[in-house]
Structure of Methyltransferase:
Amino acid sequence: MENTLKLEELLMEGMMPTEVIGGKKWKILHGDTLKYVKAFKPGVFDAVITDPPYASGGTKQNERNRTTNQKYSSMKSVNALPDFDGDNKDQRSWTHWMAEWLYDVRKACKPGAPICLFIDWRQYPSITDALQWAGWIWRGTAVWDKGNSRPQKGRFRQQAEYIVWGSNGPMPVNRPVSCLPGVFRYGNPQNRIHVTEKPLQLMKDVIQICEPGGRILDPFAGAGTTILAAVEEGYEAVGIEVTDAYFKLGTDRVQFALEAWENEQKENQKKESEKE
């Protein structure tokens, strides 16, 4: 019988979320990451893969205080996607906030568990500080080459974002994980439902840092891309999302996409059996 992901096995007694949506291999909790990372039992996750709010999008505070659509999207207001929470902190506040949840989430991870954090160039120094302050070992940086960006005369293109990664203590070299690339080349998704959504194939590649069949936590689930990628690649996944609109959009997307994917898998199995 296929195992089912059970939240009561992951969360401490009395800490069940008021709203959660999921399936056999995934769950997304509706609420604040700072609350729920403290609620998980020790050592229940094999990896953390997430795209936190950057609180970036400008060099001055008044620029960072704009809405997330104003900072990260060129869509007209009539077509704009919902704004998301937690992106208006100044750099010191953001670094402290990052360090706080990173410290608590490390307790919920197994020894040696990898962590991958997406970030841009502006917050790169701060996120590496927060990661190490929280007790993780910083092991390096991978690059997401988006290919396209707005050209600026006399300047380098800002066509990359970064994946700062590390581990919860020593990370054995004999883990059953293959050698992974340091650069991932994918364009931005065309039909986004989230302002800063990452490509599905990019997330399928990145999550391979987790041991096969492991349980992945995404504390900022957003569009649900990491959750979807994890389940399709054979992992279990738990997400947390605080913004009401994205909790609804993300869970709807994962449910719909996984249903279509499972039907496709069944159809392929049927065709294979007919060949035999």
Observations:
- The domain at 7-275 is CATH 3.40.50.150 (Rossmann fold).
